[in-house]
Specification:
By secondary structure, the protein is α/β, with parallel strands linked by helices. The chain folds into two domains: 145 residues, Cytidine Deaminase, domain 2; 234 residues, Dihydrofolate Reductase, subunit A (3-Layer(aba) Sandwich), CATH 3.40.430.10. The protein contains ten helices and 15 strands. The strands form three sheets. An eight-stranded mixed β-sheet has the order 11-10-7-12-6-13-15-14, with helices on both faces. Helix 4 links the parallel strand 4 and strand 5. The longest helix has 14 residues. The chain starts with 11 loop residues before the first helix and ends in a 37-residue tail after the last strand.
């Protein structure tokens, strides 16, 4: 057991400082490859002399920001205690190692909540201890892991956290028999969709959805990525089997990566070529290959908004970590259903889900659920070619079947 796995005695001031550091960390950007981290500096007698948080890739890490804050106020940081939500990093990326900054500043004690699982950045506690710094880990670990859930999952498993969003009628339909689907769910539900998009790194759809719905996959103005509601269970999204967009309504805010999966071309005039996040077309039907490519791009959280074909493929692959199912109070009686064949031949083999929350959104109901038993989603994503370029051969694995004609 690592030394940081055992929580030794901390002072009330340090515990209060950790709660404050968690608040500071939550101010950081939700999107991006880096974790949200907060730091509070205390004097030997427990007074706060500096605070900081990481503001995104390429900016000062929380520890360095807190040291700068203390120095700007004229405080001597020698002998101080750094209370930080994540183990200080010990590597050089766009910025230098936080361990070096803490040692150079003369910090005598470090209290952190969560051990850094990143093999490239971890080991900070070990280096600090070797230099004579008193290090205590695991303080408020549960709260720290809750804040970093998506990032920790991505680093530990080697693939992004996957949220699947569906929107159906009471009888599970995503469109009527004639293919019409706008709008099954309400305006309120569609507004929730943009709040979800605002906190993910990538939105994934299939080529069938692109050809049928011509989505833009942007984030509407007012969907604040920097201040998400508490926990993904209180966020939602709605689509009508495919991606949801209100064409021409509202200003376009900065958008996540827009990802199209499938071999068919994205039309030159498609709205995906317009303003919004970078467009990435992955010409493959392999779920693992898609997630590996996105992981290589630093994507930590994926929102799958495609239709039944794409939804079924991600579910069959066992990589869906959270399901957002919107149910509208309407009956269709016919038309495509939200999920296709999952390979279940008997009820005993059906995957069970644990409901996290239910919430009314306008006239609709949002059910947020997670797999009731561990899915094979924590296996490391296998290596794939550096780029899934047009015409690339589909890597072996769990293939996504071609999009049905109703989506083409």
């Amino acid at each position: 057991m690592a030394a940081s796995d055992e929580v030794r005695a901390t002072t009330p001031a340090e515990d209060a400082a950790m709660l404050r550091a968690l608040e500071l960390a939550a101010r950081g950007p939700v999107r991006g490859p880096n974790p949200r981290v907060g730091c509070v500096l205390l004097t030997r007698d427990g007074r706060t002399i500096g605070e900081g948080w990481h503001r995104g890739a390429g900016t000062a890490h929380a520890e360095v920001a807190a040291l700068g804050d203390a120095r700007a106020a004229g405080h001597d940081v020698r002998g101080a205690t750094a209370v930080v939500t994540l183990e200080p990093c010990d590597h050089t990326g766009r910025t230098g190692p936080c361990t070096h900054a803490l040692l150079a500043a003369g910090v005598a004690r470090v209290v952190h909540a969560v051990d850094d699982p990143d093999p490239a950045a971890g080991g900070g506690a070990r280096r600090l201890r070797a230099a004579g710094v008193d290090v205590v880990g695991g303080v408020r670990r549960a709260e720290g892991e809750a804040l970093l859930e998506t990032w920790l999952h991505a680093v530990r498993s080697g693939r992004p956290w996957v949220t699947l969003k569906t929107a159906t009628s009471l009888d599970g339909r995503v469109a009527a028999a004639d293919g019409t689907s706008r709008w099954i769910t309400s305006t309120e539900a569609r507004a929730d969709a943009h709040r979800t998009r605002a906190v993910v790194d990538a939105v994934v759809v299939g080529t069938g959805t692109v050809l049928a719905d011509d989505p833009a996959l942007t984030v509407r103005h007012g969907a604040d990525a920097a201040r998400p509601t508490e926990g993904r269970a209180d966020q939602g999204g709605a689509d009508q089997g495919g991606a949801e967009d209100d064409a021409g309504q509202g200003a376009v805010a900065p958008a996540p990566l827009r990802v199209v999966v499938g071999h068919r071309a994205v039309p030159d005039g498609a709205r995906l070529h317009g303003p919004g996040g970078e467009l990435v077309h992955l010409r493959t039907h392999d779920v693992d290959a898609v997630l590996a490519e996105l992981a290589a791009r630093g994507v930590r959280h994926v929102l799958v908004e495609g239709g039944p074909t794409l939804a079924s493929a991600f579910l069959r692959a066992g990589v869906v970590d959270e399901l957002h199912a919107y149910v509208a109070p309407v009956l269709l009686g016919a038309g495509p259903i939200a999920v296709g064949d999952l390979g279940v031949t008997t009820l005993a083999d059906a995957p069970r889900w644990s409901v996290r929350t239910t919430r009314q959104v306008g006239p609709d109901v949002l059910v947020v659920a997670r797999p009731a038993r561990p899915a094979p989603s924590t296996r490391p994503t296998r290596e794939v070619p550096p780029s899934l370029s047009p015409g690339a051969v589909t890597p072996p694995g769990d293939p996504v079947p071609p999009e049905p004609a109703s989506e083409a």
